[in-house]
Amino acid sequence: MAFTISPGVSVSEIDLTTVVPSVLTTAGAFAGAFRWGPVNVAYQVSNEIVLANKFGTPDTNTSTSFFTAASFLAYGNNLQLVRAANTLSYNATSGASLQVQNENVFQYSYLNNTNGNTYGSFIARYPGALGNSLTVSVADSNTFNQITGAGTITTSTSSTTVSGLNTYFTTDVTVGSFLTTTSGAILGQIASITNDTTLTLVNNANFTFNSSNGYSSGIAFNINWQYSSYFTSAPSTSASVAAAGGSNDELHVIVVDSGGLFTGTKGTVLETFPFVSKASDAYSNTTGVSNYYKNVIFNNSQYVYSIDHPEYAITSATWGKISSGTNFTTLTNAQTVNLSGGTDVTPSDSDIINAYGQFTNKDVISIDLVLTGGADSTVQQYVINNIAAARADCVAFVSPPYSAVVQKPGNEVSGITSWISSLGISSPSIGSYVVADSGWKYLFDKYNNTYRWVPLNADIAGLCVYTDSVRDPWWSPAGYNRGNLKNVIKLAWNPSQSQRDTIYSIGVNPVVTFPGSGTILYGDKTLQSKPSAFDRINVRRLFIVLEKTISLAAKYSLFEFNDAFTQSQFVSLVTPYLRDVQGRRGITAFKVVCDSTNNTPQVVNSNQFVGDIYIQPARSINFIQLNFIAVASGVTFNEVVGSTGV
Questions:
Q1: What is the pLDDT of residue 203?
Q2: Cα atoms found within 13 Å of the Cα of residue 334, Cβ hemisphere only
Q3: Is residue 6 part of a domain?
Q4: What pLDDT is stored for residue 17 in this prediction?
């Protein structure tokens, strides 16, 4: 605070009310194979409905990933999901093959594409064969009502034909368009074009015939765009373009699930974009945002991008120009394109590792529980070493491979033992960030009316979410109170007591189905091999929470003076928080030291600051010994156990 030059009073505020903030401990993270959705970018999913809508419903190749995510979402509502895709998985296009992984890639590389129809006018928003189900149609002021003419109409109870037309109608009219009278009455939809001059219609219910035997007469008519009924009126010139002296800029765009892969019904209209503009600087008078058709589709469509201007627009070079003085070229025909060439290629380990790479930077994304789904040991090793242990603020959850517990009945213990060895955990500290379970579960796939095997690691992470919601992260997620798994028809392997003893000794937590009690997580170990407090899930998660919260508070001491005042302020900041954790049974005792004993002159002169926080974590009960002692008649209990045992 600067001093005033002349006498006066200055007022300022100094905020010393900093507190230790709360942090989320229930954010899951997962990367896997899906049929749809953005690739190599994290997307927050809150429930299974959002999962299915954004990343597609499962098929045989993606069911393990889908139901891993769905299993976690049965317990929590915060999953950071990354879709992995092979480089040969292409977006469906109306032109050449192309992979556009996500919105960022499209925005930076293709939104203002000028490649001259290399990829066609529209492409599916994401890679995958689902995009082959999409059809996009466009009409403007010249093609909404395509043709006005006259001919002879002949009707019967089943169809209507219009004949006597000029031959050019057969190239300008598309099947699916609507034929109306010039007054607007709908006569029917064009079913076929024959003999160059004859249209056959499917009768529309709004048209009343004079006779059940049919009639023949001359009629003046319009032939409308196939999808005109989905829009209120024909496109024309927008207000913003008209004000700039331009004309004929408006378009209608419609996206249709022609293959029925998205909705289950062929021909379902997915999206409409009415009255968008060909002008790059057009804006909406109602919202004030860009009305340029490429921008509108980029910002609002869930299914497609507009990439190249159609051929006719490239030739005339008006689409995408600014509004001022531009008479935008109109279509000769309404453009309808069926997207194709979308492919599904199974992601490799390197593809999945690349997707998990989105979680490595803890300054960019906050996560706590990392699922691995059905990944093999190569991917699991990457998650353990490069995410969980490297970040040191989250825990990895792993399951044995399908082959170890589903395909090898009777050899599960040896299969799990070999799998743990294959993880190659090189130090106890790394193992403390890993939780391993004993198998896979069988569940019903409602999307395909079948049953699937799914690994249990998402459920174990989900139990941590549930524990956070009913208790705190430092409580064990195992046992009858908080360890009941959901959506389990049966386990691939239900280990016996002796089998549980064997796998628990190497850090694998058994999951067991008990008659009348459900399926229970029956262990709470991490994979730390060194006996210590950190070989338990609740202790590892306790320290993650403490480290996250206190480090967030400590950053406000950066660039302050390292003196007795700042040191005392730090102690006063941390102590109430730890006292609260102690009161909630997370720790049994603690001590905070931040003074001249650990902030020595050398530390101060090195521009460093040291706070030592000593914690005695609370321990969960893993073993209960109950001794029942029979006492002879006439013997008092005091004689057996002493007065202190009564």
A1: 59
A2: 30
A3: no
A4: 47
Residues 134 and 149 in one domain: no
- Average pLDDT, consecutive stretches of 10 residues, N- to C-terminus, the chain (646 residues): 54 49 72 98 96 96 98 96 97 92 92 70 96 94 73 63 58 69 69 71 54 51 80 93 95 96 95 96 83 95 90 72 93 87 96 98 95 97 97 97 91 96 91 97 97 98 95 93 96 97 97 96 94 92 90 84 91 91 92 94 93 88 70 74 54
**Closest by alpha carbon to 262, among 317, 300, 302?**
302
For residues 38 and 303, the answer to whether their CB atoms sit within 8 Å is: no
Residue 358 confidence (pLDDT) = 98
Q: Give pLDDT, residue 438.
A: 97
Same domain membership, residue 516 and residue 485: yes
Residue 373 and residue 235 share a domain: no
Distance CA 438, CA 428 (A): 20
Q: Is residue 23 part of a domain?
A: no
Please report the beta strands in 438-542, taking only residues with DSSP state E, as ranges in sequence order.
440-445, 450-455, 490-491, 508-509, 511-514, 518-521
- 179 and 59 part of one domain: no
40 and 110 assigned to the same domain: no
Q: Transcribe 129-171 into DSSP letters.
A: GGGGGEEEEEEETTTSEEEEEEEEEEE-SSEEEEES--TTHHH
- Inter-helix orientation angle 457-470/63-73, to 10°: 10
CA dihedral 176, 177, 183, 188 (to 10 degrees): -20
Are residues 237 and 281 part of one domain?
A: yes
Last residue of a domain, one of 208, 224, 240: 224
Q: What DSSP string describes 534-557?
A: GGBHHHHHHHHHHHHHHHHHHGGG
Report the pLDDT value the prediction gives residue 422, as an integer from 0 to 100. 96
In sequence order, what are the residues at sequence separation of 6 or more whose Cβ sits closer than 8 angstroms to the Cβ of residue 424? 381
Phi and psi at 179, nearest 5°, equal -105, 125
Range of the domain at 643: 562-646
In a domain, 154, yes or no: yes
Q: Indicate if 418 and 514 belong to the same structural domain.
A: yes
Domain count, the chain: 4
Calculate ∠ Cα 250-142-116, nearest 5°. 70
Residue 19 lies in a domain: no
